[in-house]
Amino acid sequence: MRLQGEAAEKPVHCNKSGAYRTFSTMGILNINDIKEGMTLAADVKNKHGNIMIRQGMALTEKHIMLLKAWGIAEADVDGFDRDQLHEDEMKTVSPEVIEAIEKELREFFPPLEGNEIMSEIYRITKKLKIKQVMES
To answer: How many Cβ atoms from other residues are within 10 Å of residue 40's Cβ?
Structure first.
């Protein structure tokens, strides 16, 4: 299940399962990247169009847990985007560690140019590997 924002200028796209979301140039984050205190830039709706959490709401841990329980995969938040979060994460890890992780992942991933799905899988895998290193 995905979200739909209220802004009329943003086109709505449906996938095969009937889930939908409004595309935006910035702010759509995976639910696992959303943190307490972030503010919704668009209403979060279920697949029937019912508003689950209203635009402008500052998210709490309870909201995030509910979004996960409802199967919401992502949400549009003010002032954040996926690339910004990725850059912020990279600043906390040494270049040597990042290089070692990228070298390891190149053994498993084919060239990613033009392949959005594999690029996203690579991004998530890299993020998880960095998280493992930071926690050890």
So the answer is: 22
